[in-house]
Design brief:
Layout: H1 4-18, E1 23-28, H2 41-45, E2 50-56, E3 59-64, E4 68-73, E5 79-84, E6 96-102, E7 111-116, E8 123-128, H3 152-159, H4 166-171, H5 181-191, H6 204-223, E9 276-280, E10 283-287
Antiparallel strand pairs: 1-6, 2-3, 3-4, 4-8, 5-7, 6-7, 9-10
Helix pairs in contact: 1-6, 3-6, 5-6
The structure holds a DNA duplex (16 and 16 nucleotides).
DNA sequence: CTATCTTCCTGTGCGC
DNA sequence: TGCGCACAGGAAGATA
């Protein structure tokens, strides 16, 4: 589920309910996810105040009083689920591996926020707030696509000399941070670039177009609350609806909206066979074979 | 250095 | 309605 827009949406939801609050307790229900939870996690969480949030690529960072930040990656199936703290006993949530409880404001009931992740590809770590970007999982990450530092020149330099398909290059978090399978497919469609083309051979004009197209698709999705495929994305249980605006992702066989192939006269070959699917590096790629070159 | 493959997990949807 | 199988939003780590 979670690529940059989904992580941004989740983070904003957490910010709204957690920032400024004091953590009363942490409930750690297994040893870890992808890796063991860090030593002393519960102790650092309990009693700390939540100072704020930041996103880096697909990672979220929750700053705590005391000088630590909690680093979280949602993996493939991670969600954050918020509910009244009183529900904890009578309605256990499946695959809730870690949760924190915060006090309510003005006498309101407290809140429990749980990290739910059936596939357990997510991860949680602690890092000194002053050294967040030095964490081994964040060091070496490419530019944030929504920041000014992500320019055609920067992207061009990252793609130069790379003979890997452009699809795989854009999934590489060292090239640009936060893109995943959905948004790479969508951005390549918008920029008119064939996913199998070698990264270094994408013509300059279209390579430059990638920058605004990546930004546009990410911003549109954030505005829609991200994409909700099989899970709720938002901490408040609300659904993102960007999945309704996919132009190619998961649309194999459907007509490509850029090609008027439905209007082809009878007996003539349609100019576009519609959205195709291919497998690259073990992952589905969706694209229009006529308009992506 | 780069590129490719395997691996970690559970849930879901489909064909039979 | 059950069973087996393919596939799912990620990416680290091993290997060539």
């Amino acid at each position: 589920m979670p690529e940059l827009p989904e992580v941004e949406t989740v983070m904003r939801g957490l910010d709204a309910v957690l920032t400024g609050r004091r953590i009363l307790a942490a409930d750690i229900r297994r040893e870890g996810l992808r890796w063991p939870f860090p030593e002393g996690l519960a102790a650092r969480l309990a009693g700390a105040r939540v100072l704020g949030f930041r996103r880096r690529g697909k990672y979220m960072l929750m700053r705590l009083s005391g000088g630590d930040s909690v680093l979280v990656h949602l993996g493939m199936s991670g969600r954050m689920v918020a509910r009244p703290a009183s529900q904890r006993a009578d309605a256990p949530v499946a695959h809730e591996h870690l949760a924190i409880e915060v006090a309510g404001e003005d006498g309101a009931e407290g809140l429990r926020v749980g990290f739910v992740d059936p596939r357990r590809f997510g991860c949680v770590d602690l890092v000194p707030t002053a050294a967040e970007d030095g964490h081994r999982l964040l060091a070496g990450m490419g530019p944030e696509p929504l920041e000014d530092a992500f320019t055609p020149a920067v992207l061009g330099a990252a793609l130069a000399g790379r003979r890997t398909p452009i699809k795989a290059a854009l999934l590489d978090q060292r090239v640009v941070a936060g893109l995943g399978n959905i948004y790479v497919c969508e951005a390549l469609f918008r920029a008119g670039i064939a996913p199998e083309r070698e990264a270094a051979t994408v013509p300059g004009a279209r390579a430059r177009r990638l920058v605004p197209e990546i930004r546009a698709v990410l911003l549109e999705s954030i505005e829609a609350g991200g994409s909700s495929l099989r899970d709720y994305v938002r901490a408040d249980g609300g659904l993102g609806f960007f999945q309704d605006r996919f132009r190619v992702y998961d649309r194999e066989g459907e007509p490509c909206e850029r090609c008027p192939n439905l209007a082809a006269p009878p007996g003539t070959r349609p100019p576009c066979p519609g959205v195709r699917r291919l497998v690259q590096a073990g992952r589905s790629t969706f694209f229009c074979p006529r308009t992506q070159r």
